[in-house]
Design goal:
The chain is α+β, with helices and mostly antiparallel strands. It is built from four helices and six strands. The chain has helices spanning 3-33, 143-163, 166-184, 195-204; strands spanning 53-73, 77-96, 101-105, 110-115, 120-134, 188-191. The chain is elongated and about 80 Å long. InterPro entries: DUF4230 (IPR025324).
Length: 223
């Protein structure tokens, strides 16, 4: 084998090795790094119901919820887990008119209301974030724990919304709306309510100022 033949053989071997390495990297290494995601979604419509619910007031709430749980194992080890949850919610308060009882007196153009429902929370759009999660070796958070914490926080938020001024605002709004609509059609509204129902409406008509304790700011004039 002369020198030119040997040189041609070496060049061909080098090129073949390089092309093979590139081909291996392209077909095998790249393929192993490819990520494939597949998502399937099934939406089932369970039921459709006709409702007559009207939103009369909305409020925005922030709740700071502290959760702490202690467990004692065999009276030897005391283990705890805790978390801080900050919840934000938009609460819509209004009326379900399907619960109202009434009839019409067409002779004197009157709408006679026999029962007027209480304002209620119609919907609550919530957002929860967990902070400062701590757990022990044995007492650890499980999926059921998070579900129970969120349910309790949502229940507390619902109670606070009904204790706020939202029901009073909704009560005033719905009465104004109904009497104005009746007046535009030359009708009148008579409230022939049971005594307990009257007391409920009176209670929701009371103003409840928001409780807040504000500390006075102390300004130091000396630098």
């Amino acid at each position: 084998m002369n020198a030119s033949t040997l040189l041609f053989f070496l060049i061909s071997l080098t090129l073949g090795t390089g092309i093979g390495a590139v081909a291996y990297k392209w077909f095998f290494v790249k393929k192993s790094n490819e990520e494939t995601s597949k998502t399937e979604s099934t939406v089932l419509l369970e039921s459709i119901e006709k409702v007559f619910k009207v939103v009369m007031a909305e409020g925005y709430f922030t709740e700071i919820y502290n959760y702490e749980n202690h467990r004692n194992f065999w009276n030897l080890i005391s283990d705890k887990k805790k978390a801080l949850i900050i919840a934000k919610a938009k609460v819509l308060v209004g009326y379900d008119f399907g619960k109202m009882r009434f009839h019409f007196s067409h002779s004197d153009r009157k709408m006679i209301i026999e029962y007027f429902p209480e304002p209620e929370v119609l919907s609550m759009d919530t957002d929860y974030k967990f902070y400062d999660i701590e757990q022990g070796w044995l007492n650890r958070f499980q999926t059921d724990d998070y579900t129970a914490i969120l349910n309790e926080a949502k229940k507390t938020m619902n109670e606070k919304a009904l204790q706020s001024d939202l029901p009073r605002i909704a009560s005033n709004q719905v009465q104004l709306m109904m009497f104005q609509l009746a007046a535009t059609m030359s009708w009148k509204i008579d409230l022939l309510l049971p005594e307990i129902n009257k007391k409920q409406l009176d209670e929701f008509s009371k103003y409840r100022p928001t409780d807040a304790n504000i500390d006075s700011l102390k300004i130091d004039d000396n630098p």
